[in-house]
Amino acid sequence: KNEVEQSPQNLTAQEGEFITINCSYSVGISALHWLQQHPGGGIVSLFMLSSGKKKHGRLIATINIQEKHSSLHITASHPRDSAVYICAASTGNQFYFGTGTSLTVIP
Amino acid sequence: NAGVMQNPRHLVRRRGQEARLRCSPMKGHSHVYWYRQLPEEGLKFMVYLQKENIIDESGMPKERFSAEFPKEGPSILRIQQVVRGDSAAYFCASQGDRLNIQYFGAGTRLSVL
Question: CA B55, CA B46: separation in Å to the nearest integer?
Fold first, then answer.
């Protein structure tokens, strides 16, 4: 069993839909990261959080430490949001990555 | 401010050759991480370095792989005697002393023929 599990693996949405990607982890963490990997392969860090909720534009990330669960929400989705979204748990020095959620937003 | 710079972007090697991947962290960052992404697989942690020190190399294969981050110059990930299974995208990320979010380089795509 992986230390970090993401769902769904693949997600297709119509433009404008509200999107949720879930992440569960089994390790004790110092922080939880959400990353975005574009079709060209580049990786961008979206959020790093250890409690509560963070918002950046149309993106919102939440974490529930007791339940070891985090969610990434995208409001008013747009085709340019199409990418792979990766959840990663950091435990001091190490990082454990989920296998990613491939999101396609259709115009 | 320049971001994390990795070079080369693409590297082709024949089996048995050496591969050297370079990573220049963001200005002021002294923490560097290397990750590997095998085809159709997720990212895997390889090694965490600070200037002149290897902090955690638990994700590095036991043989042929080494990493350094010298006082001057970029961090280097070195793969000796490459094999086809080493073909992957290798990403470097850097972090400041506050250990906040990591900034990723564009990656080096290694192809072993």
Answer: 11
Q: Using an 8 Å Cβ cutoff, are B25 and A63 in contact?
A: no
Q: What is the pLDDT of residues B12-58, one digit of tens each?
A: 999 999 999 999 999 989 999 999 998 888 899 999 999 889 999 99
A84 to chain B: closest CA residue? B42
CB-CB contact of A81 with A105 (8 Å): yes
Measured on CA atoms in the order A84, A44, A48, B76, is the torsion positive or negative? positive
- Assign B85 to helix, strand or coil: helix
3-class state of residue A100 by DSSP: coil
CB contact under 8 A, A97 and B58: no
**Partner A contacted by B57 (CB < 8 A):** no
In which residue are the tokens 């250990």 written? B99
Residue B67 token pair: 């990493």
The full length of chain A comes to 107
User: pLDDT per residue over A28-87, tens digit each?
Assistant: 888 999 999 988 778 999 999 999 999 999 999 999 999 999 999 999 999 999 999 999
Query: Distance from A27 to chain B by nearest Cα, in Å?
Result: 15
Out of B55, B104, B106, closest to residue A45 by CB: B104
Is the minimum CB–CB distance between B104 and chain A shorter than 8 Å? yes
CB pairs under 8 A between A and B: 48
Report whether B13 contacts B113 (CB < 8 A): yes
